[in-house]
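Appendix B, Record 12. Input sequence as logged:
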Amino acid sequence: MCTMYTKILCTNCCDGRINNLGSTWLQIDGDKFLINGRPTYEGCGKVEGLLFNLRTVNATFDDTLGIKPYWDDDGTHPENDYASYGRWESPASAFANTERFIQALAEYREHGILAVNLNFQGGHPLLNKPWFPEGEGSAGRRPNGQRDFLHNSGFHADGTIDPNYARRISSVIEACDRLGMVVILQIFYFGQDTVFPGEEEIKKAVDNAVDFIGERGYRNVIIEIANETMQNHYHHAILKPGRMPELILRARNRYKEKYGRDIYVSTSEAALLSEKQWQPAEIDAVYSVSDLIILHGPGELKIEGGEVDAREPRRKVELFRAKEWYLQKPRPILFNESAGQYAFEYAVEAGVSWGLHSGTYLQTVWPPKWGVWNNGIRWYFERVKELTSK
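Logged structural output:
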């Protein structure tokens, strides 16, 4: 049977409520995740030790630039009529959005979701909104990223953390802690990295993010240095694959030296299989020093000749599992940005963790409607609940 430590919905177990901050303790044992010393989804067959997750990086969003009216969602915009939260006013609207997200966490947990993704610099809130041309294409192609039309950064230019952003991230981490959930906390996003004038400020931001976790005693956090590390996304060399090991080691070593404990650190990839974005030696250098391998997957997988085309996620997983350093020290493989039922089922069969990214159905883009409701991604929650209820 699934145990009280990691079971999301289990009639034979306690409700798993946690009252003391820091009592949700994430651990890694080989290629499996544990919470409070027990494998996640313990007794649930092939998903035992996995970490089903949800990309919710705009749960702590705030546009402090305020030069465009596209956050106005008072019900007069048919493209946004699912939310109708009213005109965006920083920071009050940002805190209201975070509170709505926190209220939805228990519902995610009841469906088997054990982790959510946050980012100190958010994500891309304008995907699939053609009426905002600024939302098209990679922010890495613009000299100033997305910051000419929105500012969503938890860091100031000198690398210090914005107090309001810190409060919102803290409130989510602590709510997850009470529910026995994990936060994958990303530090940088390529749409906002131009807030930093140089590498020293980026290093200070890493140090401050580490201290943010360590000083508060959080033990349910994984550090993801940057969302979608690749050659062309980021504006600073230190955030590209060739320099990423420096920041991974910096974060882990600082945490160990200052707080006397280990913390798990990695980064996520984009276009990993393209040598224009990742050289083979860079893949080894980055992920051999990472505590887990964080991957991004394609959208809906195509079906060719009646067969499911799972070649891209399969190639990524098999690439790592053949590495000598991986064979010597296996570690979890986790997709925290993917889409489509075929990709999900492949991950389950392959024994790797999977996380939903949904640009269309409001878990990522703006304005979000949090929770499990009757939309195009409900299948994910129902399938995870089925797999983790056995």
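The first strand starts at residue 26 and ends at 29.
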